[in-house]
Specification:
The chain contains no helices and 15 strands. It is mostly beta strands. The two termini are 36 Å apart.
């Protein structure tokens, strides 16, 4: 079934409609060499809830380890639009680095916000963007985990009528192994003049993640009511 997932590896877009198990990068590392470990970027719309991309077991190749779709069915609530009221929505993106063999979250970067639309099925002009939230988390629990947040920065625009967003960039350090430091970005987006729920959009990316780990994006959107 077609979906909206777009994947970029090492700055190069990967062509295709993706499903679990698809190889998106063939590593050129020879036997005995370290895996290339390129940067990964994942983008999708509201039809996709979760995507995990990382190394295939026993190989340096990078595959789609998990792909989960959202339930996109919407039944129009019985409400009448008024000048100061509207249909309120929330979008939330969690980007995390998952440990070797997809066990344990190492770091997490999160962005979310709420906004309103005049129509339940078509976003039209966005308004009342609010409740911007961002967070960065490192798994620091010696003697196994040593991740700390070095910086956590956010840029956002929740006043535009055509595109609202909250983008968080987390920079993480490993206090025992400097080579395991990495950056992760999580951006939640809402587009105006688009059919719902394709108005919901997100992107997450990483640079220099620990070798053997995976990038997972988990996206949630919710209708919060009419007010």
């Amino acid at each position: 079934m077609p979906n909206s997932v777009q994947i970029t590896i090492g700055g190069v877009p990967v062509a295709g409609t993706f499903k679990e198990g698809d190889v998106v990068y063939r590593d050129s590392a020879a036997d005995g060499e370290e895996c290339t470990n390129p940067s990964i970027s994942i983008r999708a719309r509201g039809d996709v809830k979760r995507v995990r991309v990382g190394p295939e077991d026993g190989s340096c190749d990078i595959v789609v380890q998990r792909l989960e779709l959202n339930n996109t069915s919407l039944s129009d609530p019985d409400s009448v639009f008024q000048s100061s009221s509207g249909y309120q929505w929330e979008v939330d993106i969690l980007a995390k680095i998952v440990g070797i063999n997809s066990i344990d979250d190492l770091t997490k970067t999160r962005s979310s916000f709420t906004f309103k639309t005049a129509s339940f099925t078509y976003s039209g002009s966005l308004f009342d963007g609010d409740d911007e939230y961002y967070n960065c988390w490192g798994h620091y629990s010696p003697p196994i985990y040593w991740y700390q947040v070095e910086s956590c920065n956010v840029i956002y625009n929740t006043t535009s009528s055509s595109k609202m967003y909250v983008e968080t960039e987390g920079e993480y350090i490993h206090t025992q192994r400097s080579s395991w430091g990495h950056e992760v970005t999580a951006e939640a987006i809402a587009h105006g003049n688009t059919n719902m729920p394709h108005a919901f959009d997100y992107e997450c990316s990483q640079v220099s993640k620990p070798s053997g780990s995976s990038l997972e994006c988990e996206f949630n959107w919710a209708y919060l009511g009419y007010n």
